[in-house]
Amino acid sequence: MYKVVVCDTISDAGIEILKKEKDIELQIKSDVNKKELPKQLTDADAIITRSSTTIDKEFLSFCENLKVIGRAGVGVDNIDLDEASKRGIVVLNMPTGNTLAATEHTMTHMLNCLRFMPNANYELKYKHKWDRKKWMGIELYGKTVGIIGMGRIGSRVAIRVMSFGANVVVYDPYIPKEKATKIGAKIVDNLDELLKVSDIITIHTPKTEETYNMIDKEEIEKMKDGVILINCARGGLYNEKALYEGLKSGKIRALGIDVFENEPQLNHPLFEFDNVFATPHLGANTYESQIRVGEGIARSVVDALKGRGYENAVNIKMEEEEITELGKQFLGLAERMGSFLSQYIKSFIKRVTIYAHGEIESCTNSLGLFSSVGILKNMIDEHVNYVNAPYLAKERGLEIETKIYDKATEFKNYLLLEAEYDDNKKIEIGGTVFEPNKARIVYMDGFDMEIELTGNIIVFRNYDKPGIIGKVGEILGKHNINIADFRLGRKQALGEALSFIKVDQEVNDAILKEILSIDGAISIAKVKI
Questions:
Q1: Are residues 274 and 119 in contact, defined by beta-carbon separation less than 8 angstroms?
Q2: Which overall architecture, per CATH, does domain 457-523 show?
Q3: What CA–CA distance (Å, rounded) separates 218 from 451?
Q4: Active-site positions?
Q5: Which CATH superfamily is domain 319-454 in?
Q6: Which is higher by pLDDT, 301 or 384?
Q7: Under 8 Å between Cβ of 105 and 258
Q8: Are 56 and 69 in contact, with CB atoms under 8 Å apart?
Q9: Does the global pTM surpass 0.85?
Q10: What digits encode the pLDDT tens for the residues 128-146?
């Protein structure tokens, strides 16, 4: 008999699933004071929660028997994943249940921005004004809608927008082009192209270091006059100060916004504009989505308790009993190499081939799995783990192949990742473990070098000319960026050179542009491992 405690309100449909399970003892404690709640969970095998219950280290200290935490929703910010993992507790979430609700909410905001319906409704009902001329709208038909991020929600928004007769332009460097063109959308290679041609722009990306404030003052200036902006994804993707200035100047015709950088918001400066349509994070708030989420999390918790599967587990790791200690270190290296590739390429990776040599030839499948986890964590707005990575890779069109490395090499054990992206472009990165806890990158695209893949790394490619390295150091020093390690590889004198520069501080894009302006520079990228 398993004891399952529901700590927050979920749909009746989810409760019914739990009640029908013969070996589940169900308790509902959604009305219990949150401070007292942990003391009542000492013998619980599983708990189901929403965002209002904070499950931190102190909370978990009371849950001596806990095996599964089910989060009825997407976000797990209220759960201490590290502490749960240390205690062997599986954490599950429901990333897909809210998809349709968020899609329709986006469309609602878009239509409001086109026709100003809330304003007209207010004036008619409460000010008793019948003013048809004042609320002259514009049509979605024939407009160009730019969609930033073509995941589950963005792709559904595209289909609905096109049903109105609008054109769709997509920017998402992490999807195969066919995903957009298959439904009749045009995919562009850079964000600027989308900004210049779109009448309406809606964003559907995860919130990461790369996407935080990705629409700022500079980007808004590149847009059409009278552009409409929508954000029903994550607060902080649009710079809210830049939005204010764009609205004040008239550059932005209207803004539909459901999420804010800091929530809750009761008196935001954006609220002073009549052409801002704001909602309090309602994207997931439909009866249907709550039913799907409740049913889904109930089934997932039961399956996890009974060992039938761990779908949408955010912290579970694969069994490693038959992998040697050396193999485990190579698995960690494989994940870091995958993370490096996705950050360095910054484009859709369609195929990765993993070559293994030496003792690690016996764990090529695991190496492929860990590599895909590293790649996907930087590509999608979901918690990627060692259980769901194969499914997510298949969904995104990422092919993983494993092979034995049969070429001559100086290393006893060697791992090589070959990534194929864009129009058949390829990049190779090789690594090895010299001794316990000394995993290193030793090769990249024909350049030999040795560096540990940790921290902030600048990858700089240039023509091998006198003075370039000094100029790089000078620029970093000018911006108080300390160099922790500098490794240089080259194929021949005065040919091309490749540098891995480890720095103690994060480097912003402006500094990278400054380095790239050096005479002889070819390319530059930053990664964080």
A1: yes
A2: 2-Layer Sandwich (3.30)
A3: 36
A4: 234, 263, 281
A5: D-3-phosphoglycerate dehydrogenase; domain 3 (3.30.1330.90)
A6: 301
A7: yes
A8: no
A9: no
A10: 999 999 999 999 999 999 9
